[in-house]
Amino acid sequence: MLFKTLASAVFYGRFARAFSALGYRQAARGFSATPFDLTGQRWLVTGASGGIGKAIALEANRLGAQVVAVARSKNKLDALVSEASAPERLGIEVCDLSSLEAISDWVGRFQSSASGPVDVLVNNVGVLLNQFVLTDEGIEQSLATNLLGPVLLTRRLLSEGGLSTDSTVINVSSGGMYATPLELDSMIAPDPQHFDGVRAYALHKRAQVVWTHHWNSVHPKGPVMQVMHPGWVDTEGVKTSLPGFRKVMKPILRTPIEGADTVLWLGAQRPAPPKEGIWLDRAVQPEHAFSMTKKTRVSVEDLVAYLDEALAKFL
Ligand SMILES: NC(=O)c1ccc[n+]([C@@H]2O[C@H](COP(=O)([O-])OP(=O)(O)OC[C@H]3O[C@@H](n4cnc5c(N)ncnc54)[C@H](OP(=O)(O)O)[C@@H]3O)[C@@H](O)[C@H]2O)c1
């Protein structure tokens, strides 16, 4: 308990300024004032009915892109269309992205009616769950949503022509990943009796970073994959999953559009992906902040082998 409290104090002390709205607003002083022009681009954004995903979808639409927004709630997606600057360029798709079968079926349907590869895929969907829940496929729900679903979606889109070598995939990770090294056993099979949703989430988000760099090493000609984190953003997800954190931090949480900024910038500017590191506020930051997260007993190959095995039936 004492260790956990101390670890939290170190974590928040280290990141409070950079991850809050203070960090964003400081960084934004150096941003160009020229608006992005996404005219002619096709974007596919997951988890787009609320929070950061909604901000990404609406802003990409406003900046000229054709956007497909994916989430579970048809009502929330309908509301998204009513808020869009150009509703004729905003498509909505209902899919439970924690279900591997649903993703697999959806990609097949989407690709059969698609007019070509998307320019930008934003793997934004992500959840931090405080309860241990298994999906119908027997996978812990946040693992399915945060890691297995996005990996399956990306790989299936690639194999079915939904991504080209010119496409960019943007994975939305989290600064929470700074708390942990890559670990597989506790990520794949968390103890249901002592489930720690914050730790599970950190493990998924660390794995996303490792997977991103691996992807670029095996796809040198593209599609390019980027991994970023949005900082601390005031969203429904934070309100539900981390009510205590939100209560204390609310005055300095970022707005969803501030959290969305680096995704929009990456999609508009298409910088080369770094071999290491994670984007925050349009700049690459180290992917380790504490030496203990560099020490791991598992390798990127172990992670890839796990992903291959877990997704084999759907690839
Ligand atoms: N907010 C932060 O401070 C923060 C910090 C670091 C990283 N992030 C990351 O940023 C991303 C977005 O976070 P957020 O705070 O905006 O989340 P949020 O407010 O909880 O919104 C999540 C979105 O994902 C959708 N969603 C959830 N489960 C889904 C599923 N199984 N299938 C399809 N859609 C699903 C939700 O819509 P439906 O209910 O309609 O499905 C909603 O549109 C996540 O990857 C998160 O880890 C957020």
Describe what this molecule looks like in 3D.
By secondary structure, the protein is of the alpha/beta class. The protein has a domain of 179 residues: NAD(P)-binding Rossmann-like Domain (Rossmann fold). It is built from twelve helices and eight strands. It has a six-stranded parallel sheet with strand order 3-2-1-4-5-6, with helices on both faces. Strands 7-8 form a two-stranded antiparallel ribbon. Helix 1 runs parallel beside helix 2 and helix 3 crosses helix 11. The radius of gyration is 18 Å and the shape is globular. The termini are far apart. The mean pLDDT is 96. The structure holds NADP nicotinamide-adenine-dinucleotide phosphate.
What order do the helices and strands come in, and which of them pair?
Blueprint: H1 2-19, H2 21-28, E1 42-46, H3 51-62, E2 66-71, H4 74-83, E3 90-94, H5 100-113, E4 118-123, H6 141-159, E5 163-172, H7 185-188, H8 197-218, E6 224-228, H9 236-241, H10 243-249, H11 256-269, E7 278-280, E8 283-285, H12 300-311
Parallel strand pairs: 1-2, 1-4, 2-3, 4-5, 5-6
Antiparallel strand pairs: 7-8
NADP nicotinamide-adenine-dinucleotide phosphate is lined by residues 47-53, 71-73, 76, 96-98, 124-127, 145, 172, 174, 229-230, 232-233, 235-238.
Could you write a compact summary of the structure shown?
The mean pLDDT is 96.
